[in-house]
Amino acid sequence: MMDIRVTIWNEFRHEREEERYRAVYPAGIHAAIAEGLGEESSYRVRTATLDEPENGLPEDVLMETDVLIWWGHKAHEEVSDDTVNRVHGRVLHGMGLIVLHSGHFSKIFKRLMGTSCNLIWRVADETERLWVVAPAHPIAAGLDRYFEIEREEMYGEFFDVPPPDELVFLSWFPGGEVFRSGCCYTRGSGKIFYFRPGHESYPTFFNADVRKVISNAVHWAAPTCGPARVFGNQPPVTAG
Ligand code: ZN
Predict the structure, then answer these.
(1) CATH number of the domain at 4-114+182-221, please?
(2) Where are the domains of the chain?
(3) Distance between CA atoms of 86 and 94, rounded to whole angstroms?
(4) How far is the CA of 2 from the centre of ligand 1 (A)?
(5) Coil, helix or strand for 7?
(6) Tell me: the pLDDT tens digits for 154-212?
(7) End-to-end alpha carbon distance in the chain
(8) Which of 63, 108, 195, 235 is 20 to 30 A from 184 (CA-CA)?
(9) How many A from CA of 73 to the centre of ligand 1?
(10) Contact at 8 Å (CB) between 72 and 102?
(11) How much distance in Å is there from the Cα of 41 to the middle of ligand 1?
């Protein structure tokens, strides 16, 4: 099997600007995610951040990316429309996209969903319990029927996204809220997975189950060698 080329994109502002976030992710959220993927020898992992030229995602980087992982929060509006257009085009052509946590409000996720992507939230050190609701799904491989994250931010319904093609996880929080926390979509030839956990003040990306989910999602979202999409005026398809 070919190596899967993974680019982990992180806004990388919280960890640089405030000690309390740097204390959780000394080398940045992207580095923790990369470390989590590091045990998988078939992944070729690189990282990119917002303040690099062309937001870290110039055309050549995207052309060499099979799966893009996205973490952003406070600077969604600083991602240029040109960058969003480049990523959008690559997704339609088959690049996988994994959107994490507050990336629900990123320009690229909202563009791909076509809805507000809004939700309810609360930061109160609550335990999140993620139930596997699609046990046969490849993203759930190797998990128990649920797993817990000891402290996380709460996200609750209604989550204003289109109904997912497949729902892999449903989260429960002690406040009584539930949330569709593992949502699969396709757009064009590309596969998209939205995964809820990952607030910047909690060590979620060091959690073994979270790392397993992200690793499984990379496998799932990687391009398959399906037929090229053909559009426009075409001559008849004649018998062989
Ligand atoms: Zn958050």
Answers:
(1) 3.40.50.880
(2) 4-114+182-221
(3) 13
(4) 34
(5) strand
(6) 999 999 999 999 999 999 999 999 999 999 999 999 999 999 999 999 999 999 999 99
(7) 32
(8) 63
(9) 7
(10) yes
(11) 30
